[in-house]
Amino acid sequence: MSKNPPPLSKARLASLRRLTRRKSRVEDGRILLEGWHLLEAALEAGRALGVLAMTPQALAAGGANGRLLEKALDRAEAGGWIEEAELSRICGEAADQGVVAAVDWAPVGVRQVLRRAGAALADGRTPVVVAGDGLQEPGNLGTLIRLADWFGCTGVVLSSGTVDPGNPKVVRAGMGSHFHVPVAVGAALPEVVEQARRLGWWTVVAAGEGECGLRAGPPDRPVLLVVGNEARGVSPAVREAAEVRMAIPRWGRVESLNAAVAAAVFLGAWRIPGG
Amino acid sequence: MSKNPPPLSKARLASLRRLTRRKSRVEDGRILLEGWHLLEAALEAGRALGVLAMTPQALAAGGANGRLLEKALDRAEAGGWIEEAELSRICGEAADQGVVAAVDWAPVGVRQVLRRAGAALADGRTPVVVAGDGLQEPGNLGTLIRLADWFGCTGVVLSSGTVDPGNPKVVRAGMGSHFHVPVAVGAALPEVVEQARRLGWWTVVAAGEGECGLRAGPPDRPVLLVVGNEARGVSPAVREAAEVRMAIPRWGRVESLNAAVAAAVFLGAWRIPGG
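Above: the input entities. Below: the structure tokens describing the complete assembly.
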């Protein structure tokens, strides 16, 4: 397809708009990408693009964005331009970049993440999996997935009460990490933690109170780190099931850290080699 | 005032609503608090409350929230109930808790933060100040202030291009840390960094590339850590001015970490005692 696409048909516009709903994302195995950076990340990861839509302004983009758009139009199932108002109806606040696309993405199963960890282990690397227990704030979850990517985690596992990782706000905060790190949803976390523990994993809950020893680092076995809901923390059943409850020492007065920030402190302390 | 307040007058409602604008916050030296947790944090910190408004539902709250509301009504300049629709017009998405208040809060000057660091030093503690260079995302800034509180930082310094820390979304993400950590705004960061460096501070920029040695920790002098804008990172002039540009080692494929998460890795690595 050339860089001179037609107006997007109503049916194709609808096929984009439906991806703002979780149910449709599950049915289609697709998510919405908003903006240049995510589009680039999807192309680099070799993901299949569905419908691609852009405003006339975005279509006129030169430079790197122009080349990116050309490449994306070549790879998309269908492309077309839409009015800015239409784009805003799909993307909300995020419409300012003028480009949106459907892309193949779906969460994986919990077992897939655990199997992938087994493969890493066989490969001589110590796998680290991050689990989220009931996270509600999309930006927080996206940041957690991005962090897991940065530190080379094997995967992310989310409890059934967690916000959908395919939610466009989560995808935006993930900055393309959705295409690098497998994310499992709907996990019964107490059972996952128990199972991992039986398999010899080091299972750690980030808790407000607990052991310190963060800098000692994990023992030489696979790690499952669980961070909790913004208000309630990690649920009691998961805390019970884990081998260790570990706290980040506090100097100030605020009562808690958010989940992604807490995970950053743990992963940083574990992953960064001694000075 | 008893726990039986009148309907809020139009004038008082307007005095709340105007605090959604930065200009009015600066004029009034006040910010908007939304929800029970922030209200509690303000009361605990001994802050003066201006107008307090709640929905009839919130007014009927029992238990801890009921007691908190009673205390807040006692302390507020004026209190009254408003319809849920009115509250939503002020708080947007955050209206679900049914309570909003004006509270005394204003940013401090950069010199105040530096002076406070001098006092900490005289007191035998090593002060750490976190600076934000052009952060745009309110949730990200609020999380950074919360993190600075957790790790007992002396203050937060924000460049002139940074989102206003009094923005209700920043306050919400700060979880009450606004009342524990002084925040300076409008800083000419290259000059602040130069000045701190001349005064013998260890000035560090969180950079995509640079020295590692994160675990070695800071030398035994005051620390100024600068984290950058979500897209562009720390500006070239600030990078130049700093003594050290330090990177967090990366294992995965995503290009960057967000500012609060990067700061969490630095502060965690520095503050947490060896295992």
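Note for the figure: Strands of chain A lie at 30-34, 49-54, 78-81, 99-104, 128-133, 155-159, 183-187, 202-211, 223-228, 244-246.
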